[in-house]
Amino acid sequence: RVFLRAINQYADMLNKKFLDQTNFELQLWNNYFHLAVAFLTQESLQLENFSSAKRAKILNKYGDMRRQIGFEIRDMWYNLGQHKIKFIPEMVGPILEMTLIPETELRKATIPIFFDMMQCEFHSTRCFQRFENEIITKLDHEVEGGRGDEQYKVLFDKILLEHCRKHKYLAKSGETFVKLVVRLMERLLDYRTIMHDENKENRMSCTVNVL
User: Fold this and answer.
1) Do 163 and 113 contact (CB within 8 A), yes or no?
2) CA 129/CA 184 separation, integer angstroms
3) pLDDT tens sequence across 68-126
4) Which residues contact residue 155 at a Cβ distance below 8 angstroms, ignoring those fewer than 6 apart?
5) Are 172 and 154 in contact (CB under 8 A)?
6) Which of 18, 142, 165, 179 is paired with 171 by a 20 to 30 Å CA distance?
7) Which pLDDT tens digit goes with each residue over 140-159?
């Protein structure tokens, strides 16, 4: 909780002194996002790994601090305005790591950041190739590392499709991208599940699907 308060004070200072065009400090903002994501993903805050009694005790005393800092990260991202493009594709990995935390409200609040990144790169270059490449590479790594689940896949699909379909220029390319990533996620989750299967043919079939 002490660290959370310190990070929030750091965030206040960034908004007040280092956000406008003349005083913007890329490295400080970068440090903020990496620090906040590292805080959110640390082992001692992953409540689903604790017994129900310990979890209830922590929630009662502190609440879910992951949700608190996650909402703050989301707000800080939107505060960036025209500076957002400077963080793409580098921030895709850390944001993905945050959205994969198995907390439903946190996921619902932060997955839309991906659409904002797509939109931002599209306005700058008329495509979102760098974002797409980065999320596919990082997703592969994260799912292999044990993160991600069926609920995440469903939320990712639903939230991003809704956003894309409302956008004049991203409706078609956005939908193609979302379908691609969801299909990849399905294959990666299947592959992860079957990795320990004795049947070599099953494993090979899953590997071929991923490829």
Assistant:
1) no
2) 17
3) 999 999 999 999 999 999 999 999 999 999 999 999 999 999 999 999 999 999 999 99
4) 104, 107, 108, 111
5) no
6) 142
7) 999 989 999 999 999 999 99
Could you tell me the two tokens for 79? 């505060």
CA distance 81 to 123: 13
Contacts of 58 (CB under 8 A, 6+ apart): 47, 50
> Are 165 and 186 in contact, with CB atoms under 8 Å apart?
no
Tokens representing 30 are 């970068």
Structure tokens at 144: 């292999």
- CB atoms under 10 Å from CB of 116, counted, come to 17
User: What tokens were used for 105?
Assistant: 């409200």
Contact present, 136 and 89 (Cβ < 8 Å): no
- SS3 sequence of 25-37: CHHHHHHHHHHHH
Rounded Cα distance, 136 and 46, in Å:
25
